[in-house]
Amino acid sequence: MEIVIDGVVDTRENPISADDFLDKFIEWIEENHWYFGGTVREYNENEED
Question: Domain of life of the organism in this record (predicted)?
Answer without folding.
Answer: Bacteria
